[in-house]
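Page 42, continued from yesterday. The earlier attempt failed because a stray header line got pasted into the input along with the sequence. Redoing it now with the clean sequence only.
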Amino acid sequence: MSKTVLLWSLFLSLSVNAPSSAESLDRPTIGLVLAGGGARGAAHIGVLKYLEDHRIPVDLVTGTSIGAIIGGLYASGLSAREIESLMLEMDWEQALIDDVPRQDRSMQRKFREDQFSIPGTPGYQGGALKIPSGAIQGQNVILALQDMTQHVAHITDFDALPRAFKAVATDIVTGEMVVLDTGNLAVALRASMGVPAFFAPIEVDGRLLVDGGITNNLPIELAQAMGADVLIVVDITSPMLPKSALGNLLTITDQLTRLLVVNNTQVQKARLTADDILLVPDLADFSAVDFSAAADAIKVGEETIKARQQALRPFMQSREAYRAVTKPIVRAPTIASIELVNETALANTVLRQRIFTKVGDRFNLKQVARDVNRIHGLGHFELVSFTQKQENDQTVLAISADKKAWGPNYLHFGFNLESEFKHDSRVSFLVGYSQQEVSQYGAEWLTSASIGDEPSLESSLYWPLDPAGNTFAYLAGGYSDRALYDY
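This time it went through. Structure tokens are written below.
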């Protein structure tokens, strides 16, 4: 799959968007409801392509998880084919990890990663292990979503989008459904898709949010409350697993999640009326985690809605009556100030040394994303993100650096194997313990031990002398039992 960086530049607004509701139009208000279902959600795009090709307007959108992402992008004014390009050209493997490019990582982090080859750094504090709240924190996901939604970054009321929009998430503390209809669109989409255990929860307005599929995977009632007269509903919910597939802890856990999702989906589908159109694409052969099959899933979506063309025909508009919604075109704002929220013990100057965007610059998404990566590359943060805020008619670039909940002291593991193939071989297992943020500039004390053919015990202190880390002191000592010349 090709790796493409997809950016939308921001320019001066030159046109007026089509209305986001059917008010004053001689037709019913049409709502689109898109279910969650992981990679199976590519079928939603096939539905959107058919609606556009046949001039069937959509006035409002609700969605959950992948349905929120595709629905939110459509509500933002992107066309079905633009969304299709995003889905097919996205480097999903890179998006679904937290690593930043090696050139954006600090020297000390590179040294540590080279020494300890086994990925994963659990925290250790007070005699207890601490682990992350998700397999990934979503660093690259949130940057990708901010990339896709930059053209509406200035819109904080989702009713003001080209199409009114609401996403659904779940409060993991209370178990309540949370409707996301204000704030930063990218953050709302990230919250709605936060599959528990895979994605770490994300905090929005003081609430800890995870995937909305747990409480409402098919938000029909929400679309009805927004004023839809007719609903086009696309249900891609993953079905329950058969008994033969329930052979281990992972599949049992998966089944419990499916049970919650299937049950709340059935409750929502019971609210459909005779006027609504329910589409259930046949996705039995598609996995919720395999994005490589997206092109085929899109075709399934197209075939599914095509089979209901008779029911959809009354909603088709003439070319004159149908006005395709276009994404807002706005001018890249001038950055009046840069606000930094830093939760760690590091001095703010350490982070600001890695922000190359300056006050007075035009907003440049590529540059800001690189700034964010450089901060995240220090290795001290769970998530680094940015938003644009409007204060007194001026644009503030707000960068938020969240500390790792399982830090700042960590365990590290590695494995070394040396072999001459014909003669000798050496095997060793490494374990390390690092205390980070020892000073305001990010000093680190690392103690490591090697167990195996060449036992060793080492301790080192890395002490930066300036915020950029260009000058530093380094002290190390230890014991090593290694034959340097063994003939």
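Notes: The chain is about 25% helix and 25% strand.
Reminder to self: strip header lines before submitting.
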